[in-house]
Write a structure and sequence with these properties.
The protein is α/β, with parallel strands linked by helices. The protein is built from 9 helices and 8 strands. The longest helix has 27 residues, at 214-240.
């Protein structure tokens, strides 16, 4: 099933930033992420929402356009809506209040239900107490960011059309290793950045911890919605019969 099929009876809506940098499979903004899972997805870009404005500035002028985007996707038939930046957890309440379907803005929302989580983030300086609190992250949860100016961070902030994915993997793995070295009490890792899921297995391998990210959460949530829908349809069929 093609992830861009707009005739699907229900789909996963993905609100993406206004960027051009490459996104490998596993990245939340990559159509192949959903194609390979057999999930119909529809993408909606928010004009002017650069990585810098969303991550580092956290520009409040963008809230309205993101609210509009979730409403458009819900009106078109989305059964689940997500975003391509974990820092949008700061607007989880506003975006969820705008629609009746589930909204998963960020993998950070999982932290409250995990045992001794630690967070690997795109930008530790920008992942402030406000965003963590609004995401429901337990106080004192350890956070480790990518090294400032590393391949993945620099290329995304510059909206470059080229990224060395081997170096990007090493950037994410390096941050995860620093996190567990500084906080050996961490039992589970959460990748905040939606560009990090392609490196989930590498992180799990070197840290020996389970790794949670937005891709895996979305796939689980979609399967749960599909199962619930199938169950409801089966019950209705039995009643009608």
């Amino acid at each position: 099933m093609n992830a861009s099929d707009i005739d699907a009876p229900g789909f996963l809506g993905v609100i993406v930033l206004d960027t051009r940098f490459p996104r490998p499979p596993g990245d939340i903004g990559c159509p192949a992420t959903y194609d390979r899972a057999g999930i119909p997805a529809r993408f909606l870009k928010v004009p002017g929402a650069s990585a810098r404005r969303v991550v580092q500035t956290q520009d409040p002028a963008l809230l309205g356009p993101f609210v509009d985007a979730v409403q458009v996707l819900a009106d078109q038939g989305a059964r689940l809506i997500t975003t391509s930046c974990g820092f949008l957890a700061g607007w989880q309440a506003e975006l969820q209040a705008a629609v009746d379907v589930p909204v998963h803005t960020s993998s950070l929302l999982q932290c409250a239900g995990l045992a001794a989580p630690g967070i690997v983030t795109f930008d530790a300086l920008s992942l402030n107490d406000r965003v963590l609190r609004l995401a429901g992250v337990p106080a004192g949860t350890p956070v480790e960011g990518l090294s400032p100016g590393c391949e993945l961070q620099a290329r995304i902030l510059a909206d470059d059309t080229l990224i060395d994915f081997d170096k990007a993997r090493d950037d994410v793995v390096g941050a995860a290793m620093r996190l567990v070295a500084r906080h050996p009490e961490v039992r589970t890792l959460v990748l905040e950045c939606t560009n990090m899921p392609p490196y989930r297995e590498a992180v799990a391998r070197v840290t020996g911890r389970p790794v949670h990210d937005l891709e895996s959460w979305l796939l689980d949530s979609w399967r749960a919605l599909a199962a619930a829908g199938a169950g409801a349809q089966s019950s209705s069929t039995r009643r009608d019969g």
